[in-house]
Amino acid sequence: MARRPVDKALATGPCQICLSGIRRVKIPGSKLGGVRDATARRLSRLHIFLYRLTGGVIGRRLVRNDMLLLTTRGRKTGKPHRVPLLYLSDGDTPVVIASWGGRPNHPEWYQNLQADPRAMVQVRSEKWPVRARTATPEEREVWWPKVLAAYHGYRVYESNTDRLIPVVFLEADDERRGDRG
Fold first, then answer.
1. What is residue 4's predicted lDDT score, i.e. its pLDDT?
2. pLDDT digits over 126-173, tens only?
3. CATH number for the domain including 33?
4. Largest CB tally within 10 Å, which of 21, 29, 85, 131?
5. DSSP string, the chain
6. What digits encode the pLDDT tens for the residues 27-83?
7. pTM recorded for the entire structure
8. Per the structure, how many domains does the chain have?
9. Which domain holds residue 141?
10. Is 177 part of any domain?
């Protein structure tokens, strides 16, 4: 029996399974899109579980980039919504990308932040409150090449969608900051 080739991302680390293999599939409107989304949700839940359990020791890196956990408040339910995200840094400010694999709509976490920009970030075992801000067109112009350099998959996501993929700054919320400073 012939063996299927192993995705390099799967072979490079214990939590590289998260989102691997999903990024290159473009099946808008097909029933397989639902399977892909269900698989992504399961892998995301596993990633979150391992990240929280180990304080980010497992799940802190994906495709050679750092990962954080972002917790938003659901715009419809009001319940916490947690998601693992690749991030870049602007000094002490995490910068995340609302790509959602190039789907036609913004990811739920981004829509939640549009409704209420207050959120919580966890990087490894450290947690702090943030206020999200979408990059201005000028900031995005500066940051988008950095985003593409950090992870080439964003180029694929960009080609899969007609929407402009937002770059989001997660700025420390000084009013709620507490002991992080």
1. 37
2. 999 999 999 999 999 999 999 999 999 999 999 999 999 999 999 998
3. 2.30.110.10
4. 85
5. -PPPPPPHHHHS-TTTTTTTTTTT---TTSHHHHHHHHHHHHHHHHHHHHHHHHTTSSSSEETTEEEEEEEEE-TTT--EEEEEEEEEEETTEEEEE--GGG-SS--HHHHHHHH--EEEEEETTEEEEEEEEEPPHHHHHHHHHHHHHH-THHHHHHHT-SSPPPEEEEEE-TTT-TT--
6. 444 444 566 678 888 988 998 889 888 988 888 887 788 999 999 999 999 999 999
7. 0.76
8. 1
9. 8-172
10. no
Residue type, 50: L
SS3 per-residue string spanning 74-124: CCCCCCEEEEEEEEEEECCEEEEECCHHHCCCCCHHHHHHHHCCEEEEEEC
Question: Which tens digits make up the pLDDT trace of 98-129?
Answer: 999 899 999 999 999 999 999 999 999 999 99
Q: Give me the chain's average pLDDT, please.
A: 82
For residue 32, what are the CA distances in angstroms to 29, 39, 60, 106?
A: 8, 10, 29, 19
Q: Which two tokens stand for residue 37?
A: 């989304």
